[in-house]
Amino acid sequence: MTAIKELERATAPEPPRRPRPARMNPADVLRVGGSGLRSRPMRVFLSALGIAIGIAAMVGVVGISTSSTEDLNRRLQELGTNLLTVTPGQNFSGGEAHLPPESVDMIAAMDHVESVSALGKTDAKVYRSDYTPVQETGGLNVSAARTDLPKSVGAEIVDGRWLNAANSRYPAVVLGPKAAEQLGVHRAGEDVKVWIGGRWFTVVGLLAANELVPSLDSSALVGWSVAERELDFDGSPTTIYTRADESSVNDVQEVLGATTNPENPNEANVSRPSDALAAKEATDDTLSGLLLGLGGVALLVGGVGVANTMVISVLERRSEIGLRRSLGATRGQIRVQFVTESLMLSGLGGAAGVALGAAATAAYALSGGLPWVVPPWAMAGGFGATLAIGTVAGLYPAVRAARLSPTLALHAT
Q: Which of 63, 134, 138, 209 gives 374 a disulfide partner, CB atoms 3.0 to 4.6 angstroms apart?
C-alpha cells in the first residue's frame, strides 16, 4: 500500500507555477521612458528649460566667480604679494607722526629685504599753466620720489623715462596716468612743462596705471633732492615700500615697524597692499553667494515644473498604464518607467544648463580678458542636482501610476 502511494506521488503532475514577469533590460527601460517624452515635445521642452535656467545660473555664477578669482591670483602673482607699505601713524598727542629720514636705509639693512624705496609728500601743487587759479588743484599730489621706486612698486613708464641720478636733481617730473589726463599732458618731452611750486618742471615721463599702488596714478613725482631744494620738503618719507623675500614676508612684517622708527615703533603703520585686492574679492564672493541662492530658487521652480509634467502625464496616460498592467507589467516596472522618464527629462535640462552656464562663463571671460575656468565639480554637481531633483519629482507620479488598478484604468478610457 505504501509502495502504491509513493508511485502515485511520483507520477502525479506538478502543480502549475505562477509565471514570473519578464524583466526589462536597461535598453527597454530607456526606450519605454523616452516614448513618453517624444509624445509631448513642447511640454518636455518647457519643463527642461526650467531646469536648464537654474543649472545655468548656478554653473555660470561659480564659473564667473572662479574665473575672476583666477584672474586676481594671476595679477597678484605678477604684481607680487611681498610688497609691504609703511606709513606714519599718530603720535602720543594725537597728531600725525613723522618717519625718520634714515628709516629707508635702516630697512635696506634688514635680512630678507629685496628692495626698499619711498615717497615723500610735499605741500606743492601742480598746474598746467602759471595762470591757473591756485584753488583749482584738481586733487593732484606732488611727491618726492626716490630713483629706485619702480623696482619696489612695479611702476612702468609708457612714455619718456623715469627719474635718474642726473635729472632728479633738476626740475623734472613724472606724471601718473590720471594726473597727466587731468593736466592735458599726452606725451613727455623737453617742451612739455607743468607749473609746480612757482616754477616750471619738465615732464620727462608718463606712468602706466598701477593697480597695487593706485595713489601713484594721481601723483606728480619729482626728485628727492630738488623737492628739498625747491619745494620745502623736509626729507621725511611719508610712504615706504619694501619688497621682502616671499618666504619671509610675515617675519619682515612683524619687525618692520620697529626698524622704521626704533624710538616709537607704534607710530609706524605697516600694511600689505595686496590685502586690499583680496578684500575686494571677498566682497565679490558675497554677491556670488546671493546669485547662487537665486539659481537654487530657479532650480527648485524647475523641479516643480518637472513634477507637474509627470503628474499630468500619469493622468493622461491611464489607459496606457492599464493596458500594460493587463499584459503583465508589474507595479515595479511601472514605477521604473515613470522615474526613468522623469530622470531623462531632468537630465536633458541639466545637460543644457551646464552647457549654457559654461558658455556664459566663456562669454564673460572673453569680454573681460579673464581666464576661462569652470570647476569640474560645479558641472558634475549641477548635473547631479538635476538627477536628484528628477528622482524626487518623478517618485510621487511613479507611485501613483503603479497604484492604478488595471480594470479602473481601462474603464476610464
A: 63
